[in-house]
Amino acid sequence: MFKQFLDKVDGSQIYLISSLGIFLVFFILVGVMLFLMKKEYIDHMSGLPLNNDKN
Predict the structure, then answer these.
(1) FRET partner for 32 with CA separation of 20 to 30 A, picked from 23, 41, 42, 51?
(2) pLDDT grade for 17, boundaries at 50, 70 and 90
(3) Cα distances (angstroms) measured from residue 35 to each of 22, 41, 55
(4) How many Å apart are CA 45 and CA 34, to the nearest integer?
(5) What is the C-alpha to C-alpha distance for residues 17 and 25, in angstroms, rounded to an integer?
(6) What is the spatial distance between Cα 52 and Cα 44, in angstroms, rounded to a whole number?
């Protein structure tokens, strides 16, 4: 499927495909990072705006 799609790509459309690929790689990396994040770190970061302590 991708081979047929890439055969029909003109020179100007390569930018569209590369930007889509960059977006997908970034989105997948952010998703993996979120799943691997520790719950304690997420709780700590979510509570930071509400803390009035100057620690």
Answers:
(1) 51
(2) confident
(3) 20, 12, 29
(4) 13
(5) 12
(6) 13
**Confidence at 4, pLDDT banded by 50, 70, 90:** confident
DSSP 2-55: HHHHHHT--STTHHHHHHHHHHHHHHHHHHHHHHHS-HHHHHHHHHGGG-----
Which residue type occupies 42? I
Cα separation values, 30 from 8, 34, 46, 47, Å: 31, 6, 18, 21
CA atoms of 55 and 42, how far apart (whole Å): 18
Counted residue by residue, the chain has a size of 55
Decide: 33 and 41 in contact? Cβ < 8 Å: no
